[in-house]
Amino acid sequence: MTVCAVLAAAVGAGGCASTVGGAGSAAEVDVRTLDTGVFPTEQPKISAHLDEIGYARLEAARMAGAVLSPSEVDAKYTVGASAQVHTDVQSVTRYLAEPVIPVLQKYGFVLGFSTGSADDVRPLEAAEAGSRQREGLTVTVLRFPDATAAKSAAAEIDAVDFAINPENVAVQLPKYADARAHWRPSVPTLGSTTAHGIYVISVLADTRTTDINRLVEASQKYLDAEVRELDKFTPTPTGKFSTLRQDPDGVLVRVMHDGGVVHAPDGQGEVVLTLRGYLNYVQDQPGRLPVLQRAGVDRVAVTPDAFGFRARDDAAAAQFVSESAELGNVVDRRAVDPPADVPGASCVQDYVAQKPAQFRCFVSYRRYAALVLGGRLWETQQRAAAQYALLANSQG
């Protein structure tokens, strides 16, 4: 390897000759020589058009960037618990009571996004004898056609949920006179529903003990921050969803797809998120966010088997790779061999991950980095080599 190639591994190939069409110059690895197995090394094809649901999912992914993870509001919420886009009313029932479905339909529900985090990963359902084993917030932001519909929907959502249990007692949020909230004094949770413009913000707060003041404080603190974020967000008009592009910044096509095709958004992947939107899906939020921020990551492409990251510059992308490989509890992982001849690549085995994603490899080329996942080391190494080649072949 030449001196410039060694430098490329350290700072992301800054100042070195670029790779064009798969051919390597004297300054870089010839990506045609890498062991990429059967995996593609050229950009996947992406459709210029989506169906109605696909466009709605793109807008919901945009809105995810305006919905704060509770960890951003309060540092004690260290564990990301859940996140999901909503383009149909049925999916909302994972977060809101099923009887609210007719209310959403009545007022023209457009789309939504849910997120949550807590000081421990145990689920919200673990309430017994007036105490829980975690403290956290679960949030759902719903969009309606106009402010009038949102205000009416918020009132009826609360009324329907309130009527489900005769032990429910109304609660006032002092800073939000129009908000509706209720709880059962024997259960340490507080549900609140607040209309803000065309949005309804539903917050479920839970604590370890039945302390209503603590629940109200946590709910209002989140609302204070989230209202500001929604005010800064510009929603796409409902009649203009088809103007959205699946990969507006060219990040998604830099991520390897086994079949060489980027599929339509499926509600969880095949989209590009802002850093804030991506954070909602991360479990170890206080550990990973600083690494992402130091690298200046502003776009994250999400696919079933890989993630692409656009960093501030070449050096930041290389730093992101080295730091990401060190994340997590040291007893739960071990370093494994990276793919041969791929500059700066890092691979680890995660003992606690599900088997199909037990191995993960990080690579970078110029300002782009990627994470590939796999269940077998040799195959993940080939994926990583192919991913590096794809990043190199995508320059131009």
Write a concise synopsis of the structure shown.
Helix content is 30%, strand content 22%. By secondary structure, it is α+β, with helices and mostly antiparallel strands.
Keywords:
single chain, 396 residues, alpha+beta, 7-stranded antiparallel β-sheet, 16 strands, 30% helix, globular, disordered N terminus
Total E-strand runs = 16
The helix/strand order is HEHHEHHEEHEEEEHEEHHEEHEEEEH
Uncertain parts: 1-26, 125-130
Distance between the termini: 23 Å
H/I helix tally:
11
- The coarse overall form would be globular
Mean pLDDT over all positions: 90
Strand content: 15-25%
Q: What is the CA-based Rg, rounded? A: 23 Å
Q: Fraction of residues in helices?
A: 25-40%
Structural class: alpha+beta
Going across the major beta sheet, what is the strand order? 2-3-4-8-7-6-5
Largest sheet, strands/sense/barrel = 7 strands, antiparallel
Description:
- The protein is α+β, with helices and mostly antiparallel strands and 396 residues long.
- It has eleven helices and 16 strands.
- The strands form three sheets. Strands 2-3-4-8-7-6-5 form a seven-stranded antiparallel β-sheet, sandwiched between helices. A seven-stranded antiparallel β-sheet has the order 10-11-12-16-15-14-13, sandwiched between helices. It has a two-stranded parallel sheet with strand order 1-9.
- Strand 6 and strand 7 form a beta hairpin.
- Helix 9 runs antiparallel to helix 10 (314-324).
- The longest helix has 21 residues, at 212-232.
- Residues 1-26 and 125-130 have low confidence and may be disordered.
